[in-house]
Amino acid sequence: MQKTVLIVEDEVIIAMDMQATLESLGWIVIGPTPTVKGAMLLIDQELPSLAILDMNLGRDLVTPVAEALKSRDVPFLVASACLDPVALGGDVFIGITNIGKPFNEQGVIAALATLDWPDQC
Amino acid sequence: MNIDDLYRQLRLGHVQAQGIVDTISDPLVVLDTRLCVLSANRSFFETFNVDGFETIGKPIYELGKGQWDIPELRKLLVEIIPRATAIIDYEVETEFPDLGRRTMLVTARGLTHAGGPRSILLTIKDATETIQQDIAKDILYGEMRHRVRNLLTIAEVMARTTSTEGRTADQYRDTFLGRFRALTQAHEIALGEPGGLGLQRVIECILVPYATATSVVIDDSPETDLECASLVTLSLVFHELATNAAKYGALSAPEGRVHVWWEINEAVEELCLHWVESGGPPVAPQVRNGQGSMLIASSVEYTLAGQLKQRYLKEGLQLALTIPISKSSAGREQGHAKDRADSGR
After folding, report:
1. B336: nearest CA partner in chain A
2. Strand order, beta sheet including B28-31
3. Structure pTM?
4. Which residues of A touch B (CB under 8 A)?
5. What are the backbone dihedrals phi and psi of residue B264, each rounded to the nearest 5 degrees, phi first?
6. What mean pLDDT is predicted for residues B256-271?
7. Contact residues, B window 229-258, toward A, CB-based 8 Å cutoff
8. Does the distance separating the beta carbons of B332 and A59 come in below 8 Å?
9. Main-chain dihedrals φ then ψ at residue A66, nearest 5 degrees
């Protein structure tokens, strides 16, 4: 099984950087996509092993994507400058790690290690 | 002094005291030990839309259709006040029939008169708006913090992704600072002119460092308000276009020209921007397929959900970018912040 990660991030330069970081760590990146709609399409096409989500996508919140992932048992991380994802995005973010912005490679590796994704072993 | 003078003096004192109490802008009420109203000031009557007849002598819980029969207030009056001298800004939140849901700050003082019965002085301050303003301020602060963090992230990533290959440190620094300045400028304009962010202004500012009197022509085009994020992205796109033109295209030759204009297609809600170079050296596409070109393409297609068409003609680069806009794009950013402020309450 390949390990795949979905990236949802509306800022292109950050998305590209995150993609490069994850690819260098051996991940296959799905996306990145800047919109809820795009993320939903990608999830329908192929369920990722896990996902990294930005909270604010232009005028939308990423919440529907988080809910879709949760209902399909896909673990995810948040990468946002937002202090309190639960207050902003709702209960689906309870207990979710926020790797923050700017994010760094060590932070991503540490956070990924905390996730329980199916083909980890 | 006879009894009439004494009465007059007492009456004058009472009228003066009542006058003072009436000038206090916060509602004020005095209760006896049974929690019946002894007196109240004008502001109390006005704020709660009651009159003296239906107030004086009545238990506070019965006032104004029982609007003061609030468990928190009962606790304050029955349990806390008898044991304390004063309670300051005790928060009571309730639904008032005429006012709606309000948050009141109640300050209570026990008054003991020599030999007489104890009474309670209550002042009531409507803090609803102050509290809402505080919440709105917190949200605004959060929004600003979010934007600043985002901006710093972009700057950091810019520094990291600006290529170092085959470049001297000076060249790297200049390329990075060019991008960084475009970012700064776009934000300056975006934050400096709330409500309407003119595309013309942004493009002019970005192109100023590259333009001589005749080298860049920006046609009068329909003014359009874009949201902050789109403008910032467009600024970076124009910065990259200008840098490329200065390196390889029309702006690298004395006779070179860049012609910029745009039109709005309202039927399909699209903005189409044109960048047409002429008079420069002939350029092959592969020469211009560097990092800058990649940034242009991904910004347009990814962030702006637009389309990019470019043709390398003998005269120079011809580029058209089409991005979707919505008719309500004016002030959208502000509406966004407001929506969130509302939902946060």
Report:
1. A59
2. B37-40, B28-31, B118-126, B100-112, B86-96
3. 0.62
4. 10-17, 20, 32, 34-35, 56, 58-59, 80-83, 101-103
5. -115, 125
6. 91
7. 229, 233
8. yes
9. -60, -40
Token digits of residue A85: 């994802």
User: Would you say the C-alpha torsion A107, A108, A111, A114 has a positive or negative sign?
Assistant: negative
Which DSSP helix (H) or strand (E) runs through A68?
Answer: helix A63-71
Chain A interface, best mutation among B157, B328, B329, by max A CB count within 10 A: B157
Per residue in A105-119, pLDDT (tens digit) is: 888 888 888 887 655
Complex ipTM? 0.72
CA distance A51 to A47: 10
Q: Where are the alpha helices (DSSP H) in chain B?
A: 3-23, 42-48, 63-66, 71-75, 128-161, 169-192, 199-207, 228-247, 291-298, 332-343
* Structural tokens at position B222: 């329909």
- The amino acid occupying position B286 is Q
The predicted-structure confidence for B119-157, as pLDDT tens digits, reads as follows 888 888 888 888 888 887 877 777 777 777 778 888 888
Over residues A12-48, the pLDDT tens digits come to 888 888 898 899 989 999 989 999 999 999 999 999 9
pLDDT at A82: 79
Nearest-CA neighbor of A74 among A45, A36, A48?
Answer: A48
Q: What was the pLDDT predicted at B327?
A: 55
Structure tokens at A36: 């809820």
Beta strands across the sheet bearing A76-78: A28-33, A4-8, A50-53, A76-78
- B146 Cβ under 8 Å from any chain A Cβ: yes
Q: What is the distance between the alpha carbons of residues B324 and B283, in angstroms, rounded to a whole number?
A: 30
